[in-house]
From TrEMBL:
Keywords, comma-separated and alphabetical: Oxidoreductase
Domain Pyruvate:ferredoxin oxidoreductase core stretches: 253-346
GO terms assigned for molecular function: 3-methyl-2-oxobutanoate dehydrogenase (ferredoxin) activity
Keyword Oxidoreductase recorded: yes
InterPro entries in the record: 2-oxoacid_oxidoreductase, PFOR_II, Pyrv_Fd/Flavodoxin_OxRdtase_N, THDP-binding, Transketo_C/PFOR_II
Pfam families: PFOR_II, POR_N
Source organism per UniProt: Eubacterium ramulus
Protein name per its UniProtKB record: 2-ketoisovalerate ferredoxin oxidoreductase
Domain Pyruvate flavodoxin/ferredoxin oxidoreductase pyrimidine binding intervals: 14-224
């Protein structure tokens, strides 16, 4: 397929349309504005519906409603906007309603800066809403990967009947790169997907209680609610098979960089540069940050590895806590950090590497 030059946010929206997304509701916020702008033009062309809600709260609940009726649906925002959507996302998880949403993250806390950051890691992977639910969280490092992961996210959401999050920072969202777009799902394929949801969707007919998954499970029955939590926990455990990770030149590494998203992309270029200077360094890049690729850290040769260097655009570090669980105290963990809208630089990573290795 021919390659086209697209901005990250627009490529994410086009990938969603090609995956069969036919409803989007959202609210403007930098740096993700191009996602709703693109959907506003594109969805009417394919018989879909776009709504700019009066708020983030309204938008996520519109998506909840559309998805509960069986339509592939999506929303997006940036950092503080995602926080406002958290209750609706928790409701979708409780009701087992499949939605996809994107966080094109920016600096914080609070309203913060409109520039890119990775300060939403805890929010994305540990506490996207009340109640302790979990989601698959996909973290691209290129626009092409953002396209591929968005396209796949709808299948994951439908398979699990659970929200799926695309966690992309403002660099990925606003940069332009050539991409190959996936095939457009046919109207027949989209109709078949919706038809397959009729056994649980809110479509106007009566169903027995066990199948009415669009209603909050348990209806205040604590026993049933615990049973639902137990089933959800089993689903989360099953995601081990879905782990995606890039392990780059780790085998003989005396220092292993670890990062996700744009920070990992910067780190990969540092590995290539410093390998030419004789530094034996490698990279572990989680693509799914939930589920997290803990097993990849077992592949490090701790007999020769002096340290793992956590690189992230967050102060204090957040990603590091999962890294610590993977390393299990087998070597030192150092950090290279920036935050608040400052973008990680190669120079900072190189300086950190040379400080550790001498």
């Amino acid at each position: 397929m021919a390659r086209v030059l697209m901005k990250g946010c627009e490529a994410i929206a086009e990938a969603a349309v090609r995956a069969g997304c036919r409803f989007f509701a959202g609210y403007p916020i930098t740096p993700q504005n191009e996602i709703p702008e693109y959907f506003a033009r594109r969805l009417p062309e394919v018989g879909g519906n776009f709504v700019q809600g009066e708020s983030e709260v309204a938008s996520v609940n519109m998506v909840y409603g559309a998805a509960a009726a069986g339509t592939r649906s999506m929303t997006s925002s940036s950092s503080p906007g995602i926080a406002l959507k958290s209750e609706g996302i928790s409701y979708c998880a409780a009701a087992r309603v499949p939605i996809v949403y994107a966080n094109i993250s920016r600096g914080g806390p609070g309203v913060g800066a409109i520039q890119p950051a990775q300060q939403d890691y805890f929010q994305a992977t540990k506490a996207s809403g009340n109640g302790g639910f979990r989601m698959m969280v996909l973290a691209p490092s290129t626009v092409q990967e953002a396209v591929d992961l968005t396209y796949a996210a709808f299948d994951y959401a439908d398979r699990d009947m659970n929200p799926v999050l695309l966690l992309a920072d403002g660099v990925i969202g606003t940069m332009m790169e050539p991409v190959e777009l996936p095939e457009m799902k046919t109207e027949e394929e989209i109709a078949a997907i919706k038809e397959g949801k009729k056994k649980w969707a809110c479509i106007g007919h009566e169903l027995d209680y066990a199948n009415r998954s669009w209603i909050q499970p348990g209806q205040w029955d604590t026993k049933k609610m615990q049973e639902w939590n137990e089933r959800a926990s089993e689903m989360y455990d099953s995601w081990e098979k879905d782990v995606m990770v890039e392990e780059y030149q780790v085998e003989d590494a005396e220092l292993v960089l670890t990062a996700y998203g744009i920070s990992a992309r910067i780190c990969k270029s540092v590995v290539d540069m410093l390998r030419k200077e004789g530094y034996k360094i490698g990279l572990i890049r989680p693509i799914t940050v939930s589920p997290f690729p803990y097993a990849s850290y077992d592949k490090i040769n701790y007999d020769i590895c002096k340290a793992v260097l956590d690189v992230e655009m967050s102060i204090p570090a957040q990603f590091i806590e999962d890294v610590e669980m993977g390393v299990k105290g087998r070597c030192a963990i150092e950090t290279c950090l920036c935050s608040g809208g400052n973008i990680m630089s190669r120079e900072a990573v190189i300086e950190a590497v040379k400080k550790i290795l001498g």
